[in-house]
C-alpha cells in the first residue's frame, strides 16, 4: 500500500471534506445543546410556575376558609363580651344596692354622730375647724394615720417652712444685700419663723383644746365611733364584693345568653376544624388535580421536545465521535493536528492544483516553506 504522502491531491480533498463535515456536525451539536439548555430552563420554570400556582391557590383558599369562620367567631366573641359587660354592670349596680342596704344603719348612725358632734361644738362655742381631721391629727392624734400626719406637719412646720422662709428672704427679699450674707441672718429668720409657727400652734391649742377640753375630748370619742363605722362599712363592702354567690342578684338571663353564645362559638370552631380537615384531605387534592390537568399538557409537550432533542443530540454525539475518530485515524496521525484544519488543507490543495504537484509530500513541503514554489524555480 502506498504511503499517504505519495498520494495525490484527492487524499487531501477527502481529508478536507471530512474535517468540514465534522465541523458542521460539531456546530449542529452546539446548536442542539443550546436549544436543549434553553428548553431545560423553560421546563424548570414551568414546573416552578405550576408548583407556585398550586401552593398560592391552596394557601389563598385555606385563608378564605379561615377568614370566613374567624369573622363569625369574632362576631360571637363580641356578643359574649357585650353580654358579660352588661352582666358586670348589672351586678355592680345590684352589689351597690346590697352594700347600701346592709350599711344603711351604720351610715345613718355616722350621720347622727356628725350631727351630734356639730351640735356639741356649736353649743360649747367651739370653732368649726376643730371638727376636722387635720385638727385632731395636730392636737389629739390617735391611730397610725393621724400620728403619721402629725409627724409630717412637724417636719413641714419646724424644718421645711423655716428653711423656705430663709430662702425667700435671702434670695428674694434681701437678694444682693449684705445682710443676706451675714452669719446670723439664717439663724434669725429660722428662729423667728419657729417662734411664729410654735406661737400659732400653742395659741390655737390654748384657745381650743384648753378652753374646750371636755367638748374636744367628746369630739374625739365621736370621731372614733365614726371611724369605727367607716371600717365596718368597708369590711361589709369587701365581704359583699368577695361573695361568689350571684344567685341573689338574679343574673341568670345574662348567664343563659353567655352560655348560648359560648356554645355558638364552640360550634363554629368545630365547623372550622371540620372544614379545614376536609380541605386538607380532599380540596387540596382537587385544586392540585385541576391545575395539573390544565397546565400539565404543555409541560409534557415541552418534556417530549426535550427528549427528542436529547435523542437528536445523542445521535449527533455519536456521529461527531465516529467522524472525529476516523479523521484522527485516517489523516491526523499522518498529517498532524495543525494540518488537519479546513483552511490549511484548502491552502495545500490550492498549491497542489495550481502548481500541478503530484504528491501530498511535495505539497506539504511547499506549504511549510521547505521547498520553493515551482513558479519561483521556473523564474530562477
Descriptive overview:
This protein has helices at 9-123, 133-139, 144-173, 183-210, 213-242, 252-335, 342-354, 360-368, 374-379. α1 runs antiparallel to α7, α2 packs across α3 and α3 (144-173) packs antiparallel against α4. 10% of the residues are buried. The two termini are 37 Å apart. It is built from nine helices and no strands. Among the domains are: 4-85 and 259-313 and 326-379; 142-211. The protein has 380 residues and is mainly α. The model has no long low-confidence stretch (mean pLDDT 88).
Largest sheet features? none
Strand content: under 5%
Helix and strand content put the structural class at: mainly alpha
Mean pLDDT: 88
N/C terminus separation:
37 Å
Record field, number of beta strands = 0
Q: Note the total helix count.
A: 9
Principal-axes shape call: elongated
The SSE string, one letter per element, is: HHHHHHHHH
Amino acid at each position: 500500500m502506498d504511503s499517504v504522502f505519495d498520494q495525490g491531491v484527492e487524499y487531501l480533498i477527502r481529508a478536507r471534506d471530512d474535517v468540514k463535515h465534522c465541523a458542521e456536525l460539531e456546530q449542529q451539536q452546539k446548536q442542539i445543546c443550546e436549544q436543549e439548555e434553553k428548553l431545560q430552563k423553560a421546563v424548570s420554570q414551568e414546573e416552578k410556575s405550576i408548583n407556585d400556582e398550586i401552593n398560592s391557590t391552596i394557601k389563598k383558599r385555606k385563608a378564605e376558609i379561615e377568614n370566613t369562620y374567624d369573622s363569625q367567631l369574632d362576631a360571637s366573641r363580641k356578643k359574649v363580651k357585650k353580654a358579660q359587660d352588661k352582666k358586670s354592670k348589672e351586678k355592680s349596680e345590684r352589689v351597690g344596692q346590697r352594700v347600701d342596704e346592709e350599711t344603711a344603719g351604720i351610715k345613718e348612725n355616722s350621720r347622727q354622730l356628725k350631727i351630734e358632734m356639730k351640735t356639741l361644738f356649736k353649743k360649747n362655742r367651739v370653732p368649726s375647724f376643730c371638727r376636722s381631721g387635720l385638727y385632731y391629727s395636730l392636737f389629739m392624734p390617735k391611730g397610725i394615720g393621724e400620728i403619721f400626719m402629725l409627724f409630717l406637719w412637724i417636719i413641714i412646720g419646724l424644718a421645711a417652712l423655716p428653711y423656705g422662709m430663709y430662702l425667700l428672704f435671702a434670695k428674694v427679699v434681701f437678694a444682693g444685700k449684705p445682710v443676706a450674707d451675714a452669719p446670723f441672718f439664717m439663724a434669725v429668720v429660722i428662729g423667728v419663723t419657729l417662734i411664729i409657727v410654735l406661737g400659732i400652734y400653742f395659741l390655737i391649742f390654748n384657745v381650743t383644746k384648753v378652753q374646750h377640753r371636755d367638748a374636744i375630748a367628746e369630739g374625739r370619742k365621736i370621731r372614733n365611733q365614726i371611724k369605727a363605722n367607716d371600717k365596718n362599712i368597708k369590711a361589709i363592702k369587701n365581704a359583699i364584693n368577695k361573695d361568689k354567690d350571684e344567685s341573689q342578684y338574679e343574673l341568670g338571663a345574662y348567664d343563659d345568653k353567655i352560655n348560648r353564645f359560648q356554645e355558638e362559638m364552640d360550634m363554629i370552631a368545630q365547623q372550622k376544624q371540620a372544614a379545614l380537615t376536609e380541605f386538607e384531605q380532599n380540596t387540596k387534592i382537587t385544586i392540585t388535580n385541576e391545575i395539573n390537568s390544565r397546565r400539565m399538557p404543555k409541560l409534557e409537550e415541552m418534556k417530549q421536545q426535550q427528549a427528542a432533542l436529547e435523542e437528536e443530540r445523542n445521535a449527533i454525539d455519536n456521529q461527531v465521535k465516529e467522524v472525529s475518530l476516523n479523521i484522527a485515524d485516517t489523516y491526523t496521525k499522518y498529517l498532524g493536528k495543525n494540518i488537519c484544519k479546513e483552511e490549511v488543507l484548502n491552502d495545500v490543495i490550492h498549491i497542489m492544483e495550481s502548481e500541478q504537484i503530484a504528491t501530498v509530500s511535495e505539497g506539504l513541503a511547499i506549504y511549510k516553506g521547505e521547498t520553493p514554489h515551482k513558479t519561483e524555480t521556473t523564474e530562477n
